Amino acid sequence: MSNNPSSPPATHDAEVIVVGAGPVGLTTGCALRHHGIDCLILEERTEVQATSRANNLWARPQELLAGIGLRDALAARAYPIRLVNFFMNGTPTTPIPIDEVASPYPQVLYSGQDVIETTLIGAFADRGGRMARGRKVVAVAQDEDGVTVTLRRGEDGPEETLRGRYLVAADGARSTVRPLLGLDFEPVRFEGRMNRQVDARLSWRRSLEPDQLWFFYYERGFCGVMPVWGGYHRLFFLGDDAGVPDRDPTLAEIQALAREVTGDETLTLTDPQWLTHSRFQYGVSPAYARGRIFLAGDAGHLSLPIGGQGMNAGLHDAVEIAWRLAMTLRGEAAPVVLDSYDAERGGEHARLSGQQAKGFRRTVYRGPVTDAALGLAAKAVPGLGALLQGTDDLQQLAVRYPDSPLNEDHLGGLAHPLQRGPAPGDRAPEAEVTQAGETTSLFRLLTNPDGVTTGWTLLCFDGRSATSSPSLRAAIEAVAPWRCVRPRLVLAGPSIEAGTVPVLSDLDGKAHGAYGLEGQPAVLLVRPDGHIAFRDAADRPDRLDAYCRRVFGPRI
């Protein structure tokens, strides 16, 4: 990365204080260090949590983790999944090949939260991050220059204060920071349903290869079987709590239920690592920011166990707040950049929460009439299982920010009714291009462009036009004052040179097609997180200049 690590000013103990050392807090810390920002993580626990709660990484979060150099280390201790199998009352539905998505990381990874945390702790230390365990936050106060955190060491230990420029609360569903900010919420509860769960060694007649998942819809319930790192499997049962003891299940109870639900009388569970039970509630904080304090992960929402979306959504938060804080602390961003975090992530969590609640109701409140109808449809409806869970985008590739204050679009609306392709707020799609005669991925050229960790990429498409050269050069000249903007020429027509700007050949039109720009010279500005921010015709550098002034501040 091109940014030198920064040190906190004498009046602050850290530039950013992160509360919570779970996967989201650790990822936030690692991302900040990736951007060269001084960071201190505070954690109440004295040791890594031994049990594994969240344990999967979908494609889009993997893309974000790759952008901050974490994905490969996590993948090295995870099982890649290729297939999801669904059964409706014993009848198989169409399996879902989970890895058939347009991403460099199509296979979902299954590991364990304890393994993920341990890996991230090592990465954070390697990046020079600082962590203090055994510290409980008891108060926060902020002013125009920073945030003061009051801590207590241990249960009855002394109090101390620390000060940072900003604070990120990633301290989980029982967050101590959220209510201190007036951002608490009343959860919505699902009555009459319970989850019972075990992590244990599994023997059964189906495959033990950790490359697929199984989900079973049974009468008034839903079961999942999935790998956990180290040769273990997780079995969970979301179902009616009538007649079920309100306590953690025994191994014998779970095994008997598993044999009934899976139809495998040989299924055997041994060496349990974790037996637990829980009930269900969900909700979202009314805001994800208050001044200099930001919420991330479960600190801002209670997530339902549908589709394994909770931790993954929190990883989005971690990456999204880190690059905004980095740009702000380095004086590279106007206030709208940091302000956009609340608008984007708060809105996305509200959308996801509604989607999960809908899927949860479909899954665990099914009656006999619904079951009968679904049983008849099971063999005819592809992707039935994904639809039942409330989404056909388990991989989170469709996460978008259509109402972001960072968006500006001059190619959509009534002026361009036939314009296709991704718009501002959408994830920039992957595409194959050629550079210096070698086939490469467009994604590789969007992430940390030219070594700038918070770099924005200006994609200059010639639209296969032989006369686009002056307009594209003018657009490149327009962004020159802002060092964080890194241009790339994407050429389907004649070759163009523009100094040291990388040239990407697209003679086959794969990139132009992915972005809906055949026949139209255009420029797109892509943010550090891979989402499109600005889109316009190539011949309007004045509007590009005005956008940069609004988002990055005056010309330097």
TrEMBL record:
Its cofactor is FAD. Residues 14-345 form the FAD-binding domain. This is FAD-binding monooxygenase. Belongs to the PheA/TfdB FAD monooxygenase family. Gene3D superfamilies: 3.30.70.2450, 3.40.30.120, FAD/NAD(P)-binding domain (3.50.50.60). Transmembrane segments: none annotated. One of its GO terms (molecular function) is FAD binding. It comes from the Bacteria. Keywords: FAD, Flavoprotein, Monooxygenase, Oxidoreductase.
